Amino acid sequence: MLETRLDTGRIRAARLVIDPLFLDTPLYRCEGLEPGLGCAVSVKLETANPVRSFKGRGTELVAGRLIDMGARDVVCASAGNLGLALAWSGRRRGLNVAVVASRSAPAAKLDRIRALGARLELVDGDFDQARERAVDIARGDGVRLLEDSQDIETCEGAATIGLELVDAAQPVDAVLVALGGGAMATGVGHVLKALAPGVEVICVQPEGAPAMARSWHRRSVVTTGPTDTIADGVAGRRPIKAVLDDLLQVADDAVLVREESIIAGMRALLDHAGLVVEPSAALGIAAVLEDRERFAGRHVATIVCGSNVDLDSYHRWIGAASIR
Amino acid sequence: MLETRLDTGRIRAARLVIDPLFLDTPLYRCEGLEPGLGCAVSVKLETANPVRSFKGRGTELVAGRLIDMGARDVVCASAGNLGLALAWSGRRRGLNVAVVASRSAPAAKLDRIRALGARLELVDGDFDQARERAVDIARGDGVRLLEDSQDIETCEGAATIGLELVDAAQPVDAVLVALGGGAMATGVGHVLKALAPGVEVICVQPEGAPAMARSWHRRSVVTTGPTDTIADGVAGRRPIKAVLDDLLQVADDAVLVREESIIAGMRALLDHAGLVVEPSAALGIAAVLEDRERFAGRHVATIVCGSNVDLDSYHRWIGAASIR
């Protein structure tokens, strides 16, 4: 019996609140990728929307509920995509949005957050330090704090991706989900386990930011020292226990991948699918590249969860010679 | 009174025949593009599907009707995307597909046609020479010839894009459509003129392949000498009269753009929307870049119609330095 914090009925209802712009995203086979990966590959493309990541699904719910409650202000810490999406959803509803981010977050994300009219505060340090600062702001100003993965709306929003995967015309054998704080993994995982329990749910995290994956394997929260990965979107050090408890119920595995595999995944998505993606969005392909045997002959779906990348970094990672 | 070869009821019915993979594609504002263009810009993204262009909408209709008629074989000439899409739709239904293309068509397109199991014949010369050869094959082998833009299914398929534009949550003032043989322009144009006659339909062709645009201005078929453009998908020399007659009814303008504007459009779509596109898909942005005053303060939609591009060419056009 599945006993997570999520509820499939609420997830279905969430579809009615989320702007349709973020729903029913493309899901299609990328045969160009398949010879190199040795398995059938479908991509679920979450980048063709105004915020270029899946996070709008969750922030639409958050912003909608805050307005219903009469709130005027909200603050969040963000690696970038959550803040960007919250800024978009907030602007649409007249909600004042403040975002705390690391000074080292990609300029592409920070610039777009400012452009959408949100107040952006940068902190030295990493995402977890931004989290601390956001908590201080919320307490000091009496403003509602949105906590990614902790707040159920962020998981429910992501979970609507799971509904769309379950409804796919071509069923898949495994779904590869980028793992950071765990909102997407627990949300998508919950729906798959509830409605299509035969589908393997495999979470993928970088070796350089392994906190949640290690926690899953140890079945208790493991915090780590500084992260070291280009996948800025999933680089947290301190997993949240309630999210881990859910993840333990819905994930079949949590694997770690090397930086060079993430880059190879980004390159494969460009070369064979024509997609520019941010590193976190290539984690699924990286996992296949590192364990072809596991996936041989199977049909996997990977969620291409964001494309907010600084193109100079992208270009440096991919390498000029490889853009062909 | 609109009297084209198209019929809005038939176009609505086409939606039931086309694989849903090709329908209801993303349509969203790209605010990142807007400061540089001086107007509101929405993109209709036709690349997130297994054939990476809008052509699947038409080939789904063609292949479906051929199978209904008991046909087993079909041949077409193609700049690449039509052949690729026909190969996909044909494979799905057990139809034997032969494609004639120019030897100089992008390898990305030719390789994918072969990979989908179609018979590919290459000719020296350009698209119009491939057309002649396809006619010969059809006559010699008694095989059904699919003629892009001439055969109404190719226009009806593209026209379903128009239905989705009309249903958009945010109405637009103008739609920018790449102009080649005219299937997309007449299809989309017909629907807009029938259902949203206030929306300006602007067709865009490269200066280096201006046959249909010149024909539209002269109101009679103008053929040209060899084309000279990187926009391989729209490079024809001999417009079809019936298609021109339709275009004369549904287009408000047909503009020509320079090669450097097409490249600047491709670069803008990469830099500000994260999209890798083939040259034909950047024609709309190129048109805005060349006439900012015309579009100032308006809301335009542009159809990003394909992303099958050789990445070495793409890289050469865009220039390493600009990928940031």
From TrEMBL, chains A, B:
It comes from Actinomadura litoris. Keywords: Lyase, Pyridoxal phosphate. GO terms for biological process: isoleucine biosynthetic process; L-serine catabolic process; L-threonine catabolic process. Its cofactor is pyridoxal 5'-phosphate. One of its GO terms (molecular function) is L-serine ammonia-lyase activity. It comes from the Bacteria. Residues 21-306 form the Tryptophan synthase beta chain-like PALP domain. This is Pyridoxal-phosphate dependent enzyme. The keyword DNA damage does not apply.
